[in-house]
Hints:
26 helices
Amino acid sequence: MKLKLITDDTYHLSIKSSGDHTPLDVVQNAMGVMGLWHIVIAVALSLVKFPVAWHQLSIIFLAPPTNFSCAAPTSMTNESTIMKCYIDVGNGTMEKCTSFKYDKRIFKDSIITRWDLVCDREQLANFLQSCIMFGVLVGNLVFSIMADRIGRKKPLMIAIGLQSITGIISAIVPWYELFVIFKFISAVATGGTMLVSFVLLMEIVGVEWRSTMSVLFHVPFLLGHLMNPLISYLTRTWDGFQMAVSIPSIFLLSYYWIIPESPRWLLAVGELSKAEQILMRAAGRNKIPVENVKIAIETYESNRGIRHKQNKEKYNITHLFRTPNLRLKTICICINWFVCGSCFFGLAQYMGYIDGNIFVNVAISAAVEVPGTIVVLLLISRVSRLKILMGGNLLSALSLLSLTVITNSDYTVFLATLGLAGMSFSFPTIYLYSSEAFPTVVRNVGVGLGSVCARIGSMIAPYIATMGKIEPWLPPVIFGVGPLLGALLCFFLPETMNCELPETIEDGENFGKKQTKRSRTK
C-alpha cells in the first residue's frame, strides 16, 4: 500500500503502512530517533502553524459584529434606523436602505463596513469563511499529490510563497469578489503548508516520538490563535490585520536553506545519493556513527523488491463500508470528526458574538486550549481513548446546553470557553483513535475521510455561529447537541488502547466483536 498522509488543520498523528518496518527503522537508526538535528527542523517547521491559525481563524476580526444605522433614504439617525434594513419614510411606506452608517468605536474598518455586508448581504461574511475552509481542504488534496510527485520541500516553499503573496494582495483589493478569490487561494496554500510540514516532520522523527510530536506540533497553532486578538487590537482595521498576518510568511521562505528534503521520499524515488547526503548531515549533528547511514542505504536497496510486491494490492474508500461492523465504526468515527470540526471552529467564531470585550473573550477561549492540549498529552497514554473522547464531548455538550438556561452574562464566556476546552480534548483523541481503529490497509483512507468530514463541519460552522441573530439559544443548542451525539456513538465503538491493531479488512471487521462474543459465552 502506498503511504499517504492526510492531515487535519488542528490535530495530527503519524500513519505508517505495514510491511515497511525494516526499511523505516534502519533509516531512523541512520539519523537517530531524536537529536539536535531533529529539534532544529521540528522547531522551524512548527513556525508554519502560526500563519495557519492567523488565516483560518481570522474571520472574527475581518468581519466582527458591527452595529449600523440606515443613512439613506433618510439622513436622520435615531432608534428607528438602528440595525434596520427597511425604513418607514412616511404614509406607511417602507423603503430599503441604500446606505449605512457604522459604529467604528472598536474597529475603524472591517470587510463589513468596507463592502456593506449587512442586511441582504449579511451572509457573504459567512460565505467567505466557508470558502476559506474549503480552500484548506483543496490545499490538503492538491499538495498531497504534489508532495508525492516532486517531494516535500518544493511544495512547502510554493505553499509558503503563495500564502504570503495572496495574503498581501487580498489586503489591498478594491472589490469583495476579488477578496474572496485571493483568500481562497491563500487558504489553498495554507492547507498545503499544514500538510507538507507535518508529513516532513513525521518522516524524520522516530516512531516512539511521533504521537508526542504530533500533539506538540499543534501548540504553535494554539499560540497563533491566542495572538489573533492582540494583532487585531493593535491594527483595528481588516486590511491592517490581513497585512500583519501575511507578511511573516515571507521570512519563512528562508526554509529553502534551512529545511532539507525528506530522506525517506528521496529513497522511495531512488535518489540514494541525495538521501545519503542528508542522512550524513543528520548523523553528524546527532553524533550517530557514519556506518549506520551506509547500512540504511544498502538495506533500503535490498528491500525495494519486497515493497513493490506489497504495493500491488489497492484499497479505496469503499472498503470502509463493505462489511457491517467496519461500516458502523466508520460512520460513528466520521460523525465525531464532523462534530469536532464544526464545534471547534464554530465556537472560535461564536466567542466574538458573546457580550463583552471581543478581544478578551477570544483571548480567553484561545488560552484555555493550551492546557487542554497538555492534559491530552499527559492522559493519552494512561487513560482509555474512548473515555477521553466521551469526556471531552460531554464537557462541551453540557456547558453549551447550559447556555440556554443560564442567561447571566458573567457565566456566558466561562461556559462557552468550557465548550471549546472540551473540543481541545476531543479533537486530538479522535485523530489518535481513528489511526488505531481502522485496519492498516485502509488506515490512511479512513483518517483522510474523517479529516474531510471535519472540514465539511468547519464550512458549516460560520452559519451556526451567527444564528444568534435569529434566536440567542440556537448556536449553543446546535453546537451542544453535536458533541452529545458524538459521546453517545462512543458506546458503539471498541476501545483501542493497548490493543493489537487490525491489519486487514477482516481484522477491522472482527475488531470489537471478540469481546462481545466472549461475554455471551460466559
